[in-house]
From TrEMBL:
The keyword Signal applies. InterPro entries: DUF1002. The lineage of its organism: Bacteria, Bacillati, Bacillota, Bacilli, Bacillales. Residues 1-25 form the signal peptide. It comes from the Bacteria. The keyword Signal applies. This is Uncharacterized protein YpuA, DUF1002 family. It comes from Sporosarcina newyorkensis. Keywords: Signal.
Amino acid sequence: MKKGLSLLLSIILMVGVIMPSAVFADDVINEKLGVPIVVYGANLSESEKASVKKDLNVAGEAEVEELTVDGNDLIKYIPGGDRNARMYSSAKITRQEEGEGLVINIVTPDNITQVTADMYATAMLTAGIEDAVVEVASPKKVSGHSALVGIYKAYEVTGEVLDTERTDTANDELNLATKLSEKAGVDKDEVAQLLTDIKKQIAEQKPATKEDVEKIVNEQLKKLNIQLSDADRQLLIDLMDRISKLDIDFSKLNEQLTDMASKIKDKLGDIDPSFWEKVKEFFRNMADSLKSLFS
């Protein structure tokens, strides 16, 4: 029996060796960047809010700051928005050191039906948001647009000042992205890549006229073999022309977009396969050990 208990203790200790140390890092409060901020959609019921808290692992953080986003926030960050809009999608934002980039994780992918992680990321860069881990959740099926408003609010709580022209443009970018994927039949990942690549070319080429922007748009559509109607193509040109005229540090944006373009293309290659092999091997060994312990 003593031998069996020793074996069981050894198995438990192995978890700490194999699993990444980041699993145990949530108890540390970052005094420089602040605690994670959780923003809930105002129309969540108490039970739905509890579900979102669980999805976003709020209890796993040492401390969080909790906010609510409603129609008043919507019209603040998105002129022309509906003050009475129903808002359910919620987000947890954890600031990162400069240069870390954006990491977006939709933790309830079945319930965020239109917006992908890459769509959030490209819109957030347009709005001026960078260097953060953002997790998005909803207890029911929604498009996912209101989470962006919550992210804006969270950033201003930390002392950042967002340009409303940029946030408005970012929202229009997100709307166009979902329109192209939902109604024009373009793959969602291809839409994100298209928007990222066009903005990257704008940052590099610094187009002086709308005709220059149109040329960039057409080149990227051809490169990705994406066919759009004349109306949708014009919407894309108009949006990118607005982006080209925003007060943006395009040299810095170009670095971020280059990193993001790489992530989109290699998104399925981020995880070290050897780690998962170690995990599988560990559990196989644990199962064998437990069988011998109780046989």
